[in-house]
């Protein structure tokens, strides 16, 4: 039915066809049935439109794609076309798709198709992106198996003065709860790194779009789109690799972290794990490294500088480029003001505040001592998975002084004498390690020569020989003869190859006479010398043969210092130690060093004797070049064969300090002796160590047994050969040759030939007579 012009409805008249299928010439249609652009219509008098057939040249309208031809009853055939042809509007010519000019509908149709294309492409892109995300996410562990790794434990070392000394562990600093940090610390990081931190769910779409726009405008990577949560996810679970897969996984893991933890926990984990350069992980380590104080005490300017470091820790390091670090801190302060964390006035005030620039603590100043502490932690507290606080015996000022003195002397004078390495270790009389430097530069070599290197001590081992003789009844005034010596094909010689004849043990020790030391060692027995050394603190294996008197068995500098400590403390064993206590980060004690009464190994008289003898070494002997004269001191030099090792171990009532110089490859030096550079380094260090301390005498008492007896000295005893007079006191030098095997028969014969010095040693005679 069609609606006519009248008020009523008229029945639609169907066209009539004749037998040949031709339309009747009197076909009439209503105006509503009139096709647009169709034939020529003329109004009739009865208001019925009358169809006038076109001439032969006119084409009939084609509705619905009907094909031309006589078979009008056939089913209409739609022209086939591809999807893309349809999209581009080229499936049919315009004139075949409808009547009229079709301009408006054509434009609207094209727009609709373009929208459809965009939607289709977007849908396909979303499906593809979803597939990529799903694939990369499938390469991650299942959520139920994904565990946040524990933060590697930090070991904080505290010095003898109670101040932080160093940190050990992968992080370089302790974990600090968020609530213990000043509020502007996390605010600084949020302002510059992730200002929408509290508004997103791990990935900030707006921030990502903003970063993309900025990067396009500046033609490079000007901003990053990663949130704090994404950065934490990368630090916890992923490698530093830069790839599409890693970025997708980073986003997926960020959603996981946001779902598992709250914002405050994520922020705390981030601040305690982010890298700040210079081996510092976390804000506490960074604050200690760059400002020399805890993160709990930083001001807003320092907090801004730390937040600015995250972008480029190496390039913006305050210790490397202070100006760049300061400029970046100003950017952070401005961002904090923009976010309302601080006022504009506070920002301006902070701009004017200069962060402190403490002298950086070189790792070498404490590196060797810190390494030795870490070597002992497992044996003291077992396996640990939490932060530890270790109180040490190290004096930071002395540690720094020791490193400076050692490095300075080697740098200025080591080249001339072909000395490339050195050690300084200083103990308190009880064995507490006050300074320990295991090499001239920790940055160049972390090998701890003070603890782990075993070298021949040379003549610095002789005190153990003389002490053994004192324990067997001899005294410092006992006389022995310096003369040529033959021991089963071995001929130990003095450095000068000259001999002084009869002399006291004190003089022989102070002048480091090799022949007397060897004869004395054979006299008392090499096995007894070994026992004495072990009783005093030497732990290395020692060969009990005659050459032991010349220090042929290898020991470490730490052992030598410990073995001399009984001379300084009155005769008790002093086992070296560096750890006083260990406790957890919450203060729970895990280890406290016991202070049991030390073992007494020397009586007061023997302590007095050995101290009197070794004091002469600094007064008139091989260490007379020592410039430290403020305190009563004693010690012994040592030089091994071919000048490979140069030693000096000296002590007061307050410190025992051992110095060693040489080369790692054990190559000979150019006549570097114990009385040279080692004594110089020792003097410089001891002068600093004793500043401000009241002078104390060495322990022990001893005086000559016979009234009126005068000990021999260099003026009346030194001679070029037995029975010949004149000459200068000898300089210390290395022994020549070694004694490979002990001749037990010779040792026994020498013991039988030994007779007590009745005239000079009445007490020794009584002990010999009555078996005392």
From TrEMBL:
GO terms for cellular component: outer membrane-bounded periplasmic space. Pathway: Cell wall biogenesis; peptidoglycan biosynthesis. Pfam families: Transgly, Transpeptidase. GO terms for molecular function: penicillin binding; peptidoglycan glycosyltransferase activity; serine-type D-Ala-D-Ala carboxypeptidase activity. Residues 7-17, 43-61 have a biased composition (Basic and acidic residues). The chain crosses the membrane at residues 114-137. It comes from the Bacteria. GO terms for biological process: cell wall organization; peptidoglycan biosynthetic process; proteolysis; regulation of cell shape. Residues 430-664 form the Penicillin-binding protein transpeptidase domain. Residues 166-336 form the Glycosyl transferase family domain. It catalyses: [GlcNAc-(1->4)-Mur2Ac(oyl-L-Ala-gamma-D-Glu-L-Lys-D-Ala-D-Ala)](n)-di-trans,octa-cis-undecaprenyl diphosphate + beta-D-GlcNAc-(1->4)-Mur2Ac(oyl-L-Ala-gamma-D-Glu-L-Lys-D-Ala-D-Ala)-di-trans,octa-cis-undecaprenyl diphosphate = [GlcNAc-(1->4)-Mur2Ac(oyl-L-Ala-gamma-D-Glu-L-Lys-D-Ala-D-Ala)](n+1)-di-trans,octa-cis-undecaprenyl diphosphate + di-trans,octa-cis-undecaprenyl diphosphate + H(+); Preferential cleavage: (Ac)2-L-Lys-D-Ala-|-D-Ala. Also transpeptidation of peptidyl-alanyl moieties that are N-acyl substituents of D-alanine. Residues 1-106, 696-755 are annotated as: Disordered. Keywords: Carboxypeptidase, Cell shape, Cell wall biogenesis/degradation, Glycosyltransferase, Hydrolase, Membrane, Multifunctional enzyme, Peptidoglycan synthesis, Protease, Transferase, Transmembrane, Transmembrane helix. In the N-terminal section; belongs to the glycosyltransferase 51 family. In the C-terminal section; belongs to the transpeptidase family. This is Penicillin-binding protein 1A.
């Amino acid at each position: 039915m069609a609606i006519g012009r009248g008020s009523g409805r008229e029945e639609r008249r169907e066209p009539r066809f004749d037998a040949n299928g031709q339309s009747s010439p009197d076909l009439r249609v209503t105006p509503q049935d009139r096709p647009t652009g169709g034939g020529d219509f003329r109004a009739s008098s009865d208001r019925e439109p009358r169809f006038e057939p076109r001439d032969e040249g006119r084409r009939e309208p084609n509705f619905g794609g009907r094909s031309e031809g006589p078979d009008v009853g056939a089913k209409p055939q739609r022209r086939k076309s591809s999807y893309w042809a349809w999209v581009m509007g080229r499936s049919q010519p315009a004139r075949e798709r409808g009547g009229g000019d079709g301009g408006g509908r054509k434009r609207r149709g094209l727009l609709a198709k373009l929208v459809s294309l965009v939607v289709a492409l977007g849908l396909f892109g979303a499906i593809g992106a979803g597939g990529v995300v799903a694939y990369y996410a499938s390469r991650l562990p299942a959520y139920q198996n994904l565990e946040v790794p524990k933060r590697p434990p930090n070991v904080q070392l505290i010095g003898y003065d109670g101040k932080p000394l160093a940190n050990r562990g992968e992080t370089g600093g302790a974990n600090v709860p968020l609530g213990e940090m000043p509020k502007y610390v996390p605010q600084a990081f949020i302002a510059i790194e992730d200002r929408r931190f509290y508004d997103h769910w791990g990935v900030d779409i707006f921030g990502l779009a903003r970063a993309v726009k900025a990067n396009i405008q500046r033609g490079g990577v000007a901003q990053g789109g990663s949130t704090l949560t994404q950065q934490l996810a990368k630090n916890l679970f992923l490698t530093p690799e830069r790839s599409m897969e890693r970025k997708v996984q980073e986003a997926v893991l960020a959603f996981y972290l946001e779902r598992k933890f709250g914002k405050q926990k994520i922020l705390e984990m981030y601040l305690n794990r982010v890298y700040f350069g210079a081996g510092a992980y976390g804000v506490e380590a960074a604050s200690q490294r760059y400002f020399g104080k805890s993160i709990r005490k930083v001001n807003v300017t320092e907090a801004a500088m730390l937040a600015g470091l995250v972008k480029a820790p190496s390039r913006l390091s305050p210790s490397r480029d202070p100006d760049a670090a300061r400029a970046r801190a100003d950017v952070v302060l401005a961002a904090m003001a923009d976010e309302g964390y601080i006022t504009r006035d506070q920002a301006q005030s902070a701009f004017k505040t200069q962060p402190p620039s403490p002298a950086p603590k070189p790792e070498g100043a404490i590196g060797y001592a810190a390494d030795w502490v870490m070597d002992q932690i497992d044996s003291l507290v077992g396996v640990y998975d939490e932060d530890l606080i270790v109180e040490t015996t190290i004096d930071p000022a002395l540690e720094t002084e020791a490193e400076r003195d050692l490095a300075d002397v080697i740098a200025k004078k080591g080249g001339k004498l072909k000395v490339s390495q050195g050690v300084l270790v200083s103990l308190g009389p009880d064995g507490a390690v006050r300074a320990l430097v295991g090499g001239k530069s920790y940055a160049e070599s972390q090998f701890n020569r003070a603890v782990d290197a075993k070298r021949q001590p040379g003549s610095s081992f002789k005190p153990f020989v003389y002490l053994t003789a004192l324990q067997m009844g001899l005294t410092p005034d006992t006389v022995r003869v310096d003369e040529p010596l033959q021991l089963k094909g071995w001929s130990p010689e003095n450095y000068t190859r000259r001999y002084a004849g009869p002399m006291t043990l004190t003089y022989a020790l102070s002048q480091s006479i090799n022949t007397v030391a060897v004869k004395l060692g054979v006299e008392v027995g090499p096995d007894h010398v070994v026992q004495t050394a072990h009783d005093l603190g030497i732990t290395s294996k020692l060969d009990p043969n005659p050459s032991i008197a010349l220090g042929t068995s290898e020991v470490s500098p730490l052992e030598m210092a410990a073995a001399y400590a009984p001379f300084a403390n009155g005769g008790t064993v002093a086992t070296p130690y560096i750890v006083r206590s260990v406790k957890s980060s919450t203060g729970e004690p895990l280890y406290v060093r016991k202070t049991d009464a030390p073992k007494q190994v020397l009586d007061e008289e023997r302590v007095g004797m050995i101290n009197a003898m070794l004091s002469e070494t600094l007064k008139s002997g091989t260490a007379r070049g020592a410039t430290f004269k403020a305190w009563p001191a004693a010690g012994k030099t040592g030089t091994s064969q071919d000048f490979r090792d140069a030693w000096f171990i000296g002590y007061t009532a307050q410190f025992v300090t051992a110095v060693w110089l040489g080369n790692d490859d054990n190559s000979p030096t150019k006549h570097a002796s114990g009385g040279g550079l080692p004594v110089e380094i020792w003097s410089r260090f001891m002068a600093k160590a004793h500043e401000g301390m009241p002078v104390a005498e060495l322990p022990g008492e001893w005086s000559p047994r016979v009234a009126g007896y005068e000990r021999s000295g260099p003026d009346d005893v030194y001679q070029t050969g037995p029975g010949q007079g004149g000459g200068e006191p000898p300089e210390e030098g290395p022994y020549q040759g070694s004694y490979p095997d002990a001749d037990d028969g010779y040792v026994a014969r020498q013991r039988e030939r030994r007779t007590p010095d009745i005239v000079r040693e009445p007490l020794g005679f009584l002990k010999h007579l009555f078996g005392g």
